[in-house]
């Protein structure tokens, strides 16, 4: 199982480098006068139809109780843990700026775990696809290509095309960020 040529465990080894670059970017924005900086976390990629299709296995132990690939979600969780620590560090170094961590992971994972409570009838199946199996995703038949169609009610789906969330899902996430439920200036490490 590889992710961009790396196993999830190998890719995890690059997380610190990625987070340091994000931290430097935030510091550059602050140096340019930014007073409010939002650092978004990473989605639970192990729940996305593209990864579920490309890396599916016959081993039930590779999946969590909601059907997501555990190794890929562990990679996302590790990166998010490092991002949250980086935001806490930046908050201490730049008390005049408001540096916020925006939690994508928990919000989306909650929608995967309980799609009905978020108004979704499907959680791991792409709305727009060409009938590519259980997840309605095929690399060679992506949304916008000939022969690919969208479901009748995109607002009832969590995943738009297997790679991106639907507009309805992004709205729920944005509402959580704006209300402060999923984004604030106080970082609490969540795993």
TrEMBL record:
Keyword Glycoprotein appears in the UniProt entry: yes
Signal sequence bounds: none
Keyword presence, Oxidoreductase: no
Domain of life the protein comes from: Eukaryota
Alphabetized UniProt keyword annotations: Glycoprotein
Gene Ontology MF terms in the entry: hydrolase activity, acting on ester bonds
Family as reported in the entry's similarity comment: Belongs to the 'GDSL' lipolytic enzyme family.
Protein name: GDSL esterase/lipase
Biological source species: Panicum virgatum (Blackwell switchgrass)
